Amino acid sequence: MVPVEQRGVRPARLLVVALASLGLLARLAPGLMMSPAQAARLPHAAPYLHLARSLAEGKGFVLTERPDDAATGRTYAARRMPAYPLLISAAKTVTGAPTPATLVVQALAGTATMALAAWMAYRLAGRWAAVAAAALLAFDPYQVILAALFTPVTLTGLALTACAAGGVAQVSAVRAGRRAWPWAALGGLALAAAAYLQVWTLALAPVALAAAAVSRHRRRLLAGWAVGAAVVAAALAPWLVRNADRLGVPVLSTDVGRRLWAGTGLRPGAAGLRPAEAEPGAETAAPPDGLDETGEGVFDVKEAAGRIASAPGRWFGRAIHRAGRFWSPAPPEGLEAGPPGPAAGYTSLLPTCLLAAAGVALLRRRGETWWLLLAPAAATAAHLVLAEWAGDRAAVMPPLAALGGSGLATLLGRRGTDDGAREEA
Question: In whole angstroms, what is the distance from residue 20 CA to residue 177 CA?
Fold first, then answer.
């Protein structure tokens, strides 16, 4: 037989394709075996399923305080972002069985995320870095299991990874003196897609602004940030207009205040919609009667601000605790029992983070290196302030895997600079 090198096919490329194929199978298998109840095991799955059912039945994007008692429950029009319920509703409408169809889409999204992470590693440190990045994600227990559950995390990870890829390409174009604004626009479009899934992802915008402001090519990168921000604003405008029409105020989500309040240790009322991430034993209070949905949101923000101002040390301690839980190898809420098991964080999070730290140390002169850290930094900042689910960490692991693959390839002296890495700045 003719060696693959002589046929023009590089072994590294074959390995990436093989890893992506195996990763797809690893994600499809549990998803196709999940029953609806098993797929909805996470604490935040019920509101998404309720919204999807409401959409499929032609009742509109309406969430009730008690999803199983729509006749007496109070309705909310902007508690959740719309993209994920729309996906589940479309799967139910087209196939009649939303569980397998939705989970197949998530498996494909997880595989596409692997491919993007491998491409970023290739840009940073060559073909063997791409192989290592794909290997870090292919069988990551949390990446696999979350693709088989009703949660937007896998799709959010794809959107944030696409945003990071746009940033990497933009930084490379700026350094090479080429046009960079198309990459900035694509990054903005990806961030808007992430925001339509989970609103906390918009924390990436100020983090990217700060990074652009302190970079060596700040003028062009700030111009690119402005282009990306304009794309984000334009893409989110329809949702803002819809909420302004329904609620009288152009808000993205009325749930932000509740999560801010829950982050202070107090659970707002509405038992069916309490953030499950509030600390055990936290106090419970409800807004006054007679407030509409936006009035409740304003009340929640004011009360949270008052509690933070009255005890800043206590609030800061809770914020640090949430950040520690976000990056802890311990299973997030809802994944303590059953697969992937309590040791999953130690077999996925720790190796990836250690190799990513090596990548930062070895490739610190590359602007792309620091750009890959923006999504994890933004997620940490958002989860410091808001009581979000710790499992969201999986959405920002792919950029770290790209850094980890680059670090491993550099440590082993297999960077493959002939066809992947660029000259260091």
Answer: 33
Answer for the pair 108, 24: CB distance below 8 angstroms, yes or no.
yes
Query: How wide is the angle at C-alpha 201 spanned by C-alphas 349 and 213, nearest 5°?
Result: 95
| Burial grade of 393 (CB within 10 A; 0-12, 13-18, 19 or more) | buried
For the four alpha carbons of 391, 330, 377 and 135, in that order, the dihedral sign comes to negative
Bridge partners (DSSP) of residue 283 are 266
C-alpha distances out from residue 137 to 24, 41, 72, 229, 262, Å: 11, 23, 45, 29, 32
Q: Using alpha carbons, select from 266, 267, 285, 387 the residue that is nearest to residue 326.
A: 387
**Placement of tokens 């139910």 in the chain:** 92
Pick from 330, 402, 337: nearest CA to 124? 402
d(CA 307, CA 304): 5
d(CA 258, CA 219): 38
| Residue-wise pLDDT tens digits, 75-84 | 888 889 999 9
DSSP 338: S
- The C-alpha atoms of residue 75 and residue 60 are separated, in whole angstroms, by 11
The token pair at 43 is: 């604490």
Of the chain, the end-to-end C-alpha distance in Å amounts to 42
Identity of residue 417:
T
Is residue 396 helix, strand or coil?
Answer: helix
pLDDT of residue 272: 36
User: What pTM, to 2 d.p., does this model score?
Assistant: 0.89
